[in-house]
Amino acid sequence: MNLTDKIFHDDEAARLHLEAQRWPDGAYCPHCGECSAVTLLGGKSTKPGTYICKSCRTKFTVTVGTIFERSHIGLAKWMLAFRMMAAGKKGVSAHQLHRSLGVTYKTAWFMAHRIREAMRLDAPEPMGGPGKVIEADETYVGGKVGNKHAKKRLRPDLEADLKQKVVTLVERDGAARSFHVANVTAKTLRTVIVTNASRKSHLMTDGHTGYRSVGREFASHSSVDHSAGEYVRQGHHHSNTVENYFSILKRGIVGTFHHVSEAHLSRYLDEFDFRYSNRSGLGVDDAARADLMLKGSTGKRLTYRRSNESSHA
């Protein structure tokens, strides 16, 4: 990351960069969608980057209708936060953002959640297709008690409840999608898989009995039996791709964030899915990944109250 880039130090340069990402074909009105009757306003009393739509007579800037709307944080700091979260393979903590950006911890935490909203996919297309392999697996996030005295006070039957259940689909040489589920059952597994993966794909799983029924709905289905020590069969029958994704996710949760609440887990999954799906192995570098995140910031206004709600639980 080139920290000398003006977009990280100059709000005007940051605004122009954001406009280039949001409006590559020119400014349009976020209120009525007009593009031909939009004019950039000038004058000393006018905020830089203010436009007026002659159709609906409304003034606006590039931040209207985005996660930046009504933010008192300079756009240059936003650009740096986007780049840091785009580049951190295992994530960036709110404490790190707080120290690097010179903002309060509360502000950094809120910024991070807004950026995760920008990473969230809207109405994504089904994964896979003819000739494609979709690996599906489940894992558990959390479950550890950091303080030994707190662990003594915790009833053993409640410790398992701290573990949050996650189901992930990974297309080989492609994207990942993860979901926080209440229980790992044949019903919940089927719902996640058939609503996100093309049935024309080959479904690859482990030996969990919950995959047997849904596997019959796909072009083909195979599994490996981990309980019997089987991890790879004939070179291509394995779930190692999704296991590799889980290793990145868990290192981030344990090493960077230490604890993720159930209410916000889905936002963190969006973050790790986005970086994995736009990784360097697919030809996306840090700068391009940050720009994709900026493009995803439109139409995702997030208030502080909403960021504290369990809307993703």
Task: Describe this entry's structure for a reader.
Helix 3 (94-101) crosses helix 4 (105-119). This protein has a domain at 133-277: Ribonuclease H-like superfamily/Ribonuclease H (Nucleotidyltransferase, domain 5, 2-Layer Sandwich). It is 38% helix and 15% strand. It has helices at residues 11-22, 75-87, 94-101, 105-119, 148-153, 156-159, 186-196, 210-215, 240-257, 265-277, 286-295, 304-307; strands at 38-40, 51-53, 58-60, 133-141, 164-171, 176-181, 202-206, 220-224, 232-233, 237-238. A hairpin with a 3-residue loop joins strand 9 (232-233) and strand 10. The chain contains twelve helices and ten strands. The chain is elongated and about 75 Å long. The strands form three sheets. Strands 6-5-4-7-8 form a five-stranded mixed β-sheet, with helices on both faces. The protein has a three-stranded antiparallel β-sheet with strand order 1-2-3, with no helix packed on it. The chain has a two-stranded antiparallel ribbon with strand order 9-10. By secondary structure, it is α+β, with helices and mostly antiparallel strands. The longest helix is centred in the last third of the chain and has 18 residues, at 240-257.
